[in-house]
Each structure stands twice: as C-alpha cells, then as structure tokens.
Amino acid sequence: MARKIVLALAPTGGWGTDHGNPLEPERIRDEVLGCVELGVSWVHLHSRDLQGRLSADPGLYLKTCGLIKAESDVIIEASTGGLSDMSAADRGRTLEAREAEFASFNMGSLNFGDQVYHNSVPDIRYWLSAIRAVGIQPNLEIFDTGNLATAKALIAEGLLASPLSYNFIFNAKWGMPYDALLLAALRGMLDPRDRWGGVFFGYPDFSMHVETILLGATFTRVGFEDSRFVSGAEMKDNVAIVKEFRRVADAMGVELATPAEARRIMGLK
Q: pTM, whole model, 2 decimals?
C-alpha cells in the first residue's frame, strides 16, 4: 500500500496585489477547489484585505471560509500569524471562523527580513487559550530550534499534550535555513507520536519537500504564500503549483490523502 501524505495549501502570498496573488474570496475559493481536486486536503488561511495586508477585520476571511466549505470538505487552518503590528487579540480573530478545524500559532519571535516578527510567550499563551476555547486543534509553527523549548515548557505545564502537530518553517530570511541534518535533529526532539511537516519559503523546486517526505514527514505545504516558482518558472496560480507537485508525488509513489483521510492522520476530531 502506498504511503499517504497530507498536502496543505497556503494560497495567498504576503507581497500585495501583483503576480496574480488571489485576494478576493471568490478567487481564493476557486483556486482552493481546483487544488482540492488535485489532492490538497488542508488550506492555511490568513485574514487579509484586498491589498494583501493582514487585517484585523475578519469579514473577507470569514466569507472566504464560508465559500470554500459550501463546496468542499477540505480542512481549514486558521492562521494567527503574519508580520504586522496587530495585537495578539486582533491576530486571533481568525479563530472566529466556525469552519476552522486547525489553528496555527508561532512558538517564538525572530528577525524576519528587516522586521521583527513578534510572538512573545504571553502572546503564545493567549493564542493557545483562545484556540482551546473554540475547541480546535493547534498546529505549532517552529521557526527556530529554541521554539521547541517553548513547546516543551508548555507541555510540562500541562497546557499542551502529545500527540501534537509541528510545522517546521525553513528559509524565512534570518530564520533557520533548510538542512536535512537540522531537520533530523528537530524530528529527534519530538515525541514519537507527534505529527510534523515542513514549510520552505522561496523554494526553487520541490527537492526539499521530497527530502522531508523521505525523512518521514506527515504533511508538507505548497502555495503562493511560500513560493510561486517551480524549477525556475513562475506559476500563474496555485492550481499550476499543485499540478507540478502531484507529478512529483506520483513519481515517488506517494498518495495524497483525501480530507477525510487527512483528518484521521492529523488526529482531528
């Protein structure tokens, strides 16, 4: 039996309105639905306005979630992250989406390009409390090795418990660069029951995704938020990216999980 991998999609880039970036709810829905047909089972969504900026007004975000779920059983992950000067409470307004089954939150601060990506421990505690209050599952985003120490401290306090889901974020400028040896070390710090995967900002091709899958990843992610290029060619939309990834997965003999299978794999209720 072929191994099942959960494929996540982050459909909207953080750069603004150009290069075909999908920002309108209907356009995001259409691209997500096209990607689900090709094997995506999980979509990672930020609350953005029509200029592509992170927004404390969840109106467009909530509309997008509703449009997607009206036509698909894809898993929606609410993101509490993103570079902005919004408060922790404002960043957490994505949790208002009744359709969300998963919620990402970052486990520490870092220099991100020329900005500081603020994710203080009090904010982490706030998001974790808010995520638990709405009864959805957390997905811990790890931007550096020290972030795992924060996660372990929260586990020791009884605020988190394995099995957990960890998303290792590589190649953010001044964050941790991808290296298979580093990934192996990170994986070795987890509870054997935990699920994990990788995100690769600015990936030139899918070689990092492939290596991560071979090292035992439960899931991986593609999409405009991470990179709109495949093997040096700019993709016109997220569907084109997923088509290319599907070819790679098929060549590896890896099957992409359906949303129902992904829920079982990820331990979602």
A: 0.96
